[in-house]
């Protein structure tokens, strides 16, 4: 039912300079796997087969990663290292990758709007690869797809954030509907801590109904003079129903050096145990 996942991946990754000068931030690895591959695996687990990736200048490594490298395959064929490519090879074969470029960085909302030709008129998921998530028993996107079956409306994943760091996120004002599920009445992008309507912060997982595209076309620039996805979903919430879902699992902010190191340590220690 949710067949496509959109990955906004055109950003400059300035917080990771100089590492991201010549390589996309989505290609930075946690252990031996690039961030965006974790995202694609989460989407596949949710039953999604089409990955719609919004790239930009300097992002070609993403396309190469989700393709066959004949030279590399030829070099390691029959050697003890061949197994290292198995995982990515079967991932590439199990889904379809579509791409378009965002020419100007005009915000997350603009990135999503750029993806309209890849999505068309159907509900879809959005995954921000630098929010690395590990679901409790099932992945976060899969949890959300299951919720979509029940409510058939746009869904944002939220987590509780304490203190001033709430102003790094989109924040919802919402009323509880069932355990971990809220109906959104309002939302605001990166509020001052005193103005935050709650401590429920949006993280980079969304299910969106396709009316979002027309709304985005009519959404003026907001915070930081960018077209904000939060503002467009707010319009959906005012016109109909939007749900906030407190997901079960962990989330690492791999867009920051601290979160990136935290994720690296977490996955390293986990692999040691397994
Ligand atoms: C974006 C969204 C924000 C959301 C955040 C989650 O912000 O605009 O609403 O809370 O992702 O990571 P960014 O971190 O790209 O500035």
Describe, in plain words, how this protein is organized in 3D.
With 274 residues, the chain is an alpha/beta fold. It has a single domain (4-273), classed as Spore Coat Polysaccharide Biosynthesis Protein SpsA, Chain A (Alpha-Beta Complex). Helices cover 33% and strands 27% of the residues. It has ten helices and 13 strands. The protein has helices spanning 35-45, 60-65, 70-76, 86-94, 108-114, 116-119, 140-151, 212-217, 229-239, 257-273, and strands at 4-8, 29-30, 33-34, 50-55, 96-101, 124-127, 131-135, 154-160, 170-178, 181-189, 200-208, 242-246, 249-253. The strands form three sheets. It has a nine-stranded mixed sheet, sandwiched between helices. A two-stranded antiparallel ribbon has the order 2-3. It has a two-stranded antiparallel ribbon with strand order 7-13. A hairpin with a 2-residue loop joins strand 2 and strand 3. Helix 5 crosses helix 9. It is globular and about 60 Å long. The two termini are 34 Å apart. Bound molecules: 1-O-phosphono-alpha-D-glucopyranose.
């Amino acid at each position: 039912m949710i067949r496509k996942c959109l990955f906004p991946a055109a950003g400059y990754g300035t917080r990771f300079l100089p590492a991201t000068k010549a390589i996309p931030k989505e290609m930075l690895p946690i252990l031996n796997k690039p961030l965006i591959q974790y995202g694609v695996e989460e989407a596949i687990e949710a039953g999604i087969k089409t990955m719609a990736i919004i790239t930009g200048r300097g992002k070609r490594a993403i396309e190469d990663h989700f393709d066959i490298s004949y030279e590399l395959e030829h070099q390691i064929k029959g050697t003890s290292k061949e197994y290292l490519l198995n995982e990515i090879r079967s991932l590439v074969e199990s889904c379809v990758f579509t791409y378009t470029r965002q020419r100007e960085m005009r915000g997350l909302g603009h990135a999503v709007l750029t993806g309209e030709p890849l999505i068309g008129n159907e509900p879809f998921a959005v995954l921000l690869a630098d929010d690395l998530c590990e679901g409790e028993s099932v992945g976060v996107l899969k949890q959300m797809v299951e919720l979509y079956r029940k409510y058939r409306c746009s869904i944002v994943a939220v987590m509780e954030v304490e203190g001033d760091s709430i102003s790094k996120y989109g924040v919802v004002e919402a009323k509880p509907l069932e355990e971990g599920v809220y109906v959104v009445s309002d939302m605001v992008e990166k509020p001052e801590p005193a103005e935050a309507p709650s401590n429920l912060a949006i993280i980079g997982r969304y299910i969106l109904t396709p009316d979002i595209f027309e709304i985005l076309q009519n959404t003026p620039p907001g915070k930081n003079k960018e077209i904000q996805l939060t503002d467009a979903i707010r319009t959906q919430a005012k016109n109909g129903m939007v749900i906030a879902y407190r997901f079960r699992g962990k989330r690492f902010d791999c867009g920051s050096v601290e979160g990136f190191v935290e994720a690296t340590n977490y996955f390293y220690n986990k692999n040691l145990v397994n």
